[in-house]
Design goal:
By secondary structure, the protein is an alpha/beta fold. It is built from seven helices and eight strands, in the order H-E-E-H-E-H-E-H-E-H-E-H-E-H-E. The chain has an eight-stranded mixed β-sheet, with helices on both faces. Strand 5, helix 5 and strand 6 form a beta-alpha-beta unit. It is globular.
């Protein structure tokens, strides 16, 4: 999602350094220090308005969560929503950062799982390198994830979904599950909606999902 710059965004972020990180590289290898206790660490890349990552943190207090967004204004919108919660979420931290620099922000085996929800499809062929399931991104995910750590990817875009399946397969990944109509499957029972997901599903569009992990014995 893209928002116009808001004059209140940067001051709000600056006033809440305990909830949002603007220099993620400084925390490489020590992310657990941002939380009240160490726990499996899950990262959403491109958190939109934050509904998904906030709800995950609420439902799973046994885990720690990071929501990352490259756009300062978007991150500030999520921060405002987090501050408005009736109860604090000590297991959630926000990050202003670029997903292309993941290995600069996280040490090897530091992340337990990665969520990619309704990423920009970058539909033109020449834009393929920008897609978050392009092989250069997958290489970074494999480096920062724990052994057998998983990626969960959801989209309404069939073209991006097919590209992602092919990209993951070519990278030697193992498919834990593939759903061509998530909301009409048993997998939907514990599914946490994103803003876009709610919007598209109301229109009757199928939601695609794949859960995959890396085959650690395969070298690239």
């Amino acid at each position: 999602m893209r928002l116009r710059n808001k004059p209140w965004a940067k001051p709000l972020i600056a006033a809440n350094p305990d909830l949002i990180v603007t220099d993620p590289a400084a925390l490489k290898g020590i992310w657990q220090s941002r939380f009240s206790r160490s726990a499996p660490l899950y990262l959403e890349i491109g958190m939109g308005k934050g509904n998904f990552i906030i709800e995950m943190a609420k439902q799973h207090p046994e885990n720690n969560y990071l929501g990352m967004e490259v756009q300062t204004t978007v991150a500030a919108v999520v921060l405002k929503k987090l501050l408005a919660q009736s109860a604090s979420l000590p297991n959630l931290q926000l990050i202003v950062g670029d997903g292309r620099l993941l290995t600069e922000f996280f040490a090897e085996n530091e992340i337990t799982g990665i969520y990619l929800n309704f990423s920009d499809p970058w539909p033109k062929k020449k834009q393929a390198k920008r897609r978050l399931t392009y092989h250069t991104f997958l290489q970074q995910y494999r480096q920062v994830l724990v052994k057998n750590g998983q990626i969960e990817f959801k989209t309404d875009n069939q073209g991006l979904f097919e590209f992602s399946l092919q990209s993951m397969n070519n990278f030697g990944m193992y498919f834990v599950g593939v759903w061509l109509n998530l909301h009409q499957s048993e997998e939907n029972e514990n599914n946490v909606l994103t803003e876009y997901e709610a919007k598209f599903s109301q229109k009757g569009q199928p939601i695609y999902k794949v859960t995959a992990r890396f085959n650690c014995s395969t070298e690239h």
